[in-house]
Amino acid sequence: MSGFSLFLSVVNGLAAGLEVTVLVTLASLAFATGVGFLLALVRQFTAIRVVNLAIDAYCEILCNVPALTHLFILYFGLASIGVRLTSIAAAILGLGLIGAAITSSIFRAGFASLPKGQAEASLAAGLTPLQTIFEILTPQAMRIALPALGNYAVQLLKDTSVVSAIAAPEIMFFARSMVTSSFQTTMIYATAAALYLLLSLPLMQVTRFLERRYGRLKG
Amino acid sequence: MNALLSVAGLRKSYGPVEVLKGIDFTVAPGEKIALIGPSGSGKSTCLRCMNFLEKPSAGEICLDGERIGVRNGQVMRDRQLAPQRAEMGMVFQLFNLWPHLSVTENVAIAARKVRGLSAGEARELALEMLAKVHMTHRADASPLELSGGQQQRVAIARALAQKPKLMLFDEPTSALDPELVHEVLKVMEELAAEGRTMLIVTHEIAFARDIADRVLFLDGGKIVEAGPARQVITAPREARTQAFLNKIRH
Amino acid sequence: MIGFFAPYRDYGGEWLPLLLRAMVNTAVLSVCAFALALVLGLLLSLCQRSDFQALRHFAALYVTVVRGVPLLAVLFLLYFGLPGIGIVFDAFGAAIAGLALCFAAQIAELFRAGLKAIPAGQREAALAVGLTPVQSFRLIIFPQVVRVILAPMIVTFVALLKDSSLASLITVNELVLTGRAMATEYFLPLQIYVAVGLCYFAIAWPFSVFSRRLAVPAR
User: What residues are paired with B25 via a beta bridge?
Assistant: First the structure.
């Protein structure tokens, strides 16, 4: 096989995993931002100690244990007690739960960076606390959080490669299976790397644009 | 009388914008010169050209007969400039004390690293300089614990520790709360009385009138008026000088 | 529910030494990789601030590529791919190299942010007092930069520690691989992987807490 047609067949083979890579990325992102936002709201605006402690504990546990371990627990661990998740479901759940912990701290930082006067002015004008949170604070906190979320998304795309270890049929999974049947190891993994890079470039551009527009969150 | 500092044809441009359009003046040993003028007149830029923190676009600056900043027709690099800069003590508007060093270390470090004094000698020198600015009681404090006026006095001690031939002050009280200005001006008065050569950029007109020997009024990058301090400030010859002084007083 | 904890009582004694040894391997791997990453990150940072345009471009390209390529792909390339062109890394070496190459970019960015955070006046005062540029960097700028970036550096170390779990996929005998071996032997993946998670938590959590304390000093 000539060099270029070999390259094309490699790309073709890897592209089979494209769908799942994009699916897992988007689904995890949606899960993470949705749940993370809720967690941030509760943590930032309620004063129930037990709940706050639970949220903090959740974040600590998810942020101090590797994704690979979480995925193995969800995929292999739960299966052994009868809860069989598909590899894609485990992937989305695992990355989503970790992402929720990450995005919740991003959103919290966004809320925390808003001047106190914003909420005070809103309450003084007669808006209820809920209205204040949703009409006044959230839009502003969102804007501030966008660049950090963009960075998270870029990282998430790379992290989906890990789900190949629980047999989710995404790009890296196909790369590994192709390697066992052919001997073009370097070419296959290099092409896979290039494919991820290609996918992440637009995300990086968007993030850079967001950073320029909305500035960088501190910490 | 030989000038300690002589400035001839000083020009400075930032790209297409010319900030200094030809400055000439001399400073005799022991003389105190005040540079006054509106914002944007180039007075800080002029001062910063003296020790080449700004590199002039043209002109000659000589300290004690030695050409500053240029060797063999080439502008010197920072490493080569170090010994010349050590001869001039600079006090900045924002103090620029080093927060990770104690007050004494701030004052002593140059003596140790530039002049090679031992730790003990440097500390002794530092305490001596701190005594001059009445700050020995905070010798081991961190700069972050001090008020603005105290920080600026330590900054003055730091410059004095260089045993400089010339002291440069870049709006030393402009960043201070009003009630802290006096303590810094008092120290500068005491230094002036010692006979030090001082070049001071300032907005404190009364201070300039009382302490300076001569005043240079800068506007739009040129020296509009120069003369004895009392005369320039109480009876200026140029209309622009008078206009500026009126604005400051009101 | 109690059934979940039973295996710990039954096999804890056997598991503990295995896990402890694996923890040491993980720790050694992480520390070595981080040390190398610091060196590479410093070099990269120098390139970023170099007077030579070629070096600056190289640094920018490096950072972009590393941001977009998954660590897993890098590890596979180093361990499985390089032998194809004659360079053979042992698993541990490949893991250290891969982790260091990827995290060097993050560390360089930390250095950059740290330097930016030091006001220009600090250097000016140092030069004005007669210190040379080298002295000014060594005595005035660098100590302050270290203070500023210490907390984010520790956070980066924790991230590297977590990513060291990927070394299990190139046969390095660290925590996750040990866990997998144990899971195949004892058929108790849930309990074992949870124990693995606890081990990571035990190492990472103190660092996370410490970094937060550094970032918000008690005044």
Answer: B7
Homologous superfamily of the A3-214 domain (CATH): MetI-like (1.10.3720.10)
Contact yes or no for C106/C41 (Cβ under 8 A)? yes
For the record, the structure tokens of A124 come out as: 């003084």
Mutate to test the interface with B, among C122, C123, C129 (most CBs of B within 10 A): C129
Q: How far is C81 from chain A (nearest CA, A)?
A: 4
Indicate the DSSP class of residue B138: G
Q: Does A196 touch chain C (CB under 8 A)?
A: yes
How far off is chain A from C209, nearest CA to CA, in Å? Answer: 9
Distance (Å, whole) CA A26 – CA A156: 9
Q: What angle do CA A123, A126, A128 make, to 5 degrees?
A: 65
User: In the CATH scheme, what is the code of domain C10-214?
Assistant: 1.10.3720.10
Query: Which chain B residues are Cβ-neighbours of C126 within 8 angstroms?
Result: 98
Q: Where are the domains of chain A?
A: 3-214
Q: Are A64 and C196 an interchain contact pair (Cβ–Cβ within 8 Å)?
A: no
Q: How far apart are CA B211 and CA B188, in angstroms?
A: 9
Question: Model ipTM?
Answer: 0.90
Tens of pLDDT along chain B (250 residues) come to 578 999 999 999 999 999 999 999 999 999 999 999 998 889 999 999 999 999 999 999 999 999 999 998 899 988 899 999 999 999 999 999 999 999 999 999 989 988 889 999 999 999 999 999 999 999 999 999 999 999 999 999 999 999 999 999 999 999 999 999 999 999 999 999 999 999 999 999 999 999 999 999 999 999 999 999 999 999 999 999 999 999 887 5
Helix (H, G, I), strand (E, B) or coil at B185: helix
Rg for chain B, CA atoms, rounded: 18
Q: Do C122 and B83 touch (CB under 8 A)?
A: no
